Amino acid sequence: MTIKANDPSRKSFVQVHADSDFPIQNLPFGVARIDGSEEVVSAIGDKIVRLKVLNDLGYFDGMDVPNEVLQNPYINDLMAKGKAWNRAFRDALSDILLEGSSAEKDADQFLIGQEEVTMLLPVKVGDYTDFYSSREHATNVGTMFRDPDNALLPNWLHLPVGYHGRASSIVVSGTNIHRPKGQQKPKDDEPPVFGPCKLLDFELEMAFVIGQSTPLGTSVSTEEAEDYIFGLTLFNDWSARDIQKWEYVPLGPFLAKNFASTVSPWIVPLDAFEPFRVEGPVQEPEVLPYLQQSGANNYDIQLSVHIEAENGAHAVVCESNFKYMYWSMVQQLTHHTVNGCNIKVGDMCASGTISGKDRSSFGSMLEISWRGTRPVPLSDGSERKFINDGDTVQMRGYAQGQGYRIGFGPCDGKILPAT
Question: Which domain holds residue 262?
Fold first, then answer.
């Protein structure tokens, strides 16, 4: 598939550094508060692109772009215009920002510095599903908590395991998170206690956002799945490990997960990652026919996690990659809908923790510190087994092209004491 906006030879009249997340080949969508009101915007280099202003100036004439779609607190209505329309819209925006474009004369009207705006949660999330699709992560957890010789549960290699999470507590990067409280059972032979979580963790994940709805009772096949996926964002599935250990049997996570999840402020269209497709791991045993897929449905997106303490001490604690996922997004969405479950525009599906084969690529402190037995040093000599009050967890991700990268901006959250 050829997408004009993805052409690596394209250059913008806006200066873009080689290590910027936002070259002309990206053009993500988000929502910014500008002069007290919300607008759907894009990004190029260190600038915000005011799409409503471009529309008012006539640059999208002939595309049927109602201003209410762009002067909106969420990008849901934009996504709902459909894959073909959004592909054409992104191509048009690429032409507007192209080196030599006549739009450069109006740049001071529709471009504004990113530091001058407040980025908001880009999507009105209707429902949120979290998967558990990294074989390495599932194996590590099974080894720690169950049987090293049978780390994976019997169903894991046959279906994408998932659970329904809490959409209301998904927040945008930069939102502070209070340490959650709940029941814990520190000792097996003693009764449970209540109080602030002592083993607070991050989970490095990606999430895809649904751009088209389906009626109740219908299913989405693996061949159709990408038509329903609008784009991707970084996702930190904060986890309270001690609360989780006590509560998760028999129905899974509850208070250990629903207190907060952090996303980056930009949704990058799936189209932008077309050049970065790769084959996923070989799936053995062979999956059932409805989960079989064709083509390369994983993506080479480099991911990292950085912890910064309140005193400035810091460390990169994880460097992983989205391509490690055992179950692809295509398979996740197909399995999600195979029973007739309907999906809606704005629904968000997270990948589950993304871990590689070695400690440096593990996607959670639970694994990195191996249940607290292998502390991680920070730059000042202090150590972390889990996340302390005052720590900021910073996630970053990008796909590296020739001379450019496609990224998501920050996915940051600072932990405050329990209230």
Answer: 128-416
Q: Let me know whether 154 and 290 are in one domain.
A: yes
The pTM (predicted TM-score) of the whole model is 0.97
Q: How far apart are CA 242 and CA 186, in angstroms?
A: 8
* Residues 24 and 135 reside in one and the same domain: no
User: Do 200 and 349 share a structural domain?
Assistant: yes
Examine the fold and report which residue of 61, 86, 120 is the final residue of a domain before the chain moves on: 120
- CB contact set of 358 (below 8 Å; sequence gap of 6+): none
Give CA–CA dist 345/209, Å, rounded.
Answer: 8
Q: Which residues contact 137 (CB under 8 A, 6 or more apart)?
A: 352, 353, 354, 355, 362, 363, 364, 367
Reading the block at residue 389, the tokens are 């009050």
| Residue spans of beta strands (DSSP E) within 260-382 | 261-263, 268-269, 277-278, 298-299, 302-308, 314-321, 348-350, 376-377
**Catalytic pick from 17, 137, 314, 335?**
137
Angle at 266 between CA 263 and CA 270, to 5 degrees: 105
User: Which residue(s) pair with 195 in the sheet?
Assistant: 182
* Whether the bond into 285 is cis, omega within 30 of 0: yes
Are 168 and 86 within one domain?
no
pLDDT at 216: 98
Domain shared by 319 and 412, yes or no? yes
For the record, the structure tokens of 118 come out as 């407040």
Per residue, what are the HEC states of 40-105? EEEEECCEEEEHHHHHHCCCCCCCCCCHHHHCCCCCHHHHCCCHHHHHHHHHHHHHHHECCCHHHH
**Which pLDDT does position 2 carry in this prediction?**
80
Residue 244 half-sphere exposure, CB side, CA atoms within 13 Å? 18
Separation between Cα atoms, residue 234 and residue 173, nearest integer Å: 10
The pLDDT of residue 316: 98
Torsion of CA 263, 266, 269, 272, to 10 degrees: -110
Identify residue 311 by its one-letter amino acid code.
N
- Does 251 share its domain with 382? yes
CATH number at residue 368: 3.90.850.10
The CATH number given to whatever domain includes residue 45 is 2.30.30.230
State yes or no: is 137 an active-site residue. yes
Residues 146 and 112 in one domain: no
Per residue in 47-94, pLDDT (tens digit) is: 999 999 999 999 999 998 999 999 999 999 999 999 999 999 999 999
Q: How many domains does the chain have?
A: 2
Residues of the chain with pLDDT under 50: none
Phi, psi angle pair for 138, to nearest 5°: -65, -35
